[in-house]
Amino acid sequence: MTQRFYLESSGKDSNLPRHVHLDEFPATVGRHPECVIQLSVERLSRMHARFELDGDVLLIRDLGSTNGTFVNHARVSAPTRLQVGDVLHLADHEFRLMADAGAGESGGSGTGEETVVGMAALPRDFPLHMPAFFELLENRQVTGYGQPIVTAGGELHALELLGRSENPDLDEGPGQLFALAAALDTEVRLSRMLRRRAFAQASEAGLTLPLFFNNHPTECEDMVALLDELHELRSHHPDLNLVFEVHETAVTDLGAMAEVKEELARMGIALAYDDFGAGQARLLELAEVPPDYLKFDMGLIRDMSTSDSPRYRLLAELNRMIAGMGIKTLIEGVEDPVTADLCREIGIDYMQGFLFGRPRPLADYHQSENESAP
């Protein structure tokens, strides 16, 4: 018995046919007129994907599409075997792979368990926010926020640059954005977009105080490309007082990190090690490639209620050692006055947390950057 495959669309896009028959192999799908399956819809690449038949096995291959091909919510990076009933996404356009018996075959159970006819509505969890996310990427619908970093005395010292969505359908914060980006393998693209927007808005606001900014861990896998981007941004924003945060887990190659520090110094960008203490506290890196700032992970102050607590003694000893190396220290996640007072006793230079202010749009700091934090 021969199966005839077809794609059943979700019906959410009126520009897509309800059924797309796969009668010819290989079958290329995309917007290009030469595609066997030409679909003139947004976010689909000109040559998006190709269906191939290897004996009785149906495969799908992504053709380097911009917005991805997915099988059962997993992005396709190599030829992937398809089963009847699989959910496919070409960008955010949703289909289910279906099959019916070939001509001349009778119906009934002889079609086998893999034949699926008249299935229920397609799952909505995965693609629910995908159209909005593609719209965000294409139209750069992000904006810059800043969270206060204060001195031990409570005066505003710096801001950590953050980003938020301007798309009304994506309002759950950066975690939601990066979860969607991870599904599409676009974390670097999103991270760069957020950084560029924050830098531009900080320049527009005329901010002169230190601006801490970070990067997605994936970007550290190609530090040359990251530094090239920072060179470009620095050329556009020469007056910004920038501090580049590197997560401690990224500081693994001392020689490479020393070169990064030198390159940042040539650009007039300070260096901070972020989340120190969250994993292995790499003390050798501090000695060999000391940063300008070190940000302690907020986990170090969790449940630190008195100066007799083990966490207090640990943080005090770490701070004494690091401050002795001439490195400025900063603690994140300070949410109550008791913790703030204990951090002052320890001698930590700067603090950050909801006690001193939640993230706000960068434009809000235009008039208040030299005032005390709220």
UniProtKB/TrEMBL annotation:
PANTHER family: CYCLIC DI-GMP PHOSPHODIESTERASE PDEF, SIGNALING PROTEIN. Signal peptide: none annotated. It holds the Pfam family FHA. SUPFAM superfamilies: EAL domain-like (SSF141868), SMAD/FHA domain (SSF49879). SMART domains: EAL, FHA. Residues 126-373 form the EAL domain. InterPro entries: Cyclic-di-GMP_PDE-like (IPR050706), EAL_dom (IPR001633), EAL_sf (IPR035919), FHA_dom (IPR000253), SMAD_FHA_dom_sf (IPR008984). This is EAL domain-containing protein. Residues 27-76 form the FHA domain. It comes from Wenzhouxiangella sediminis.
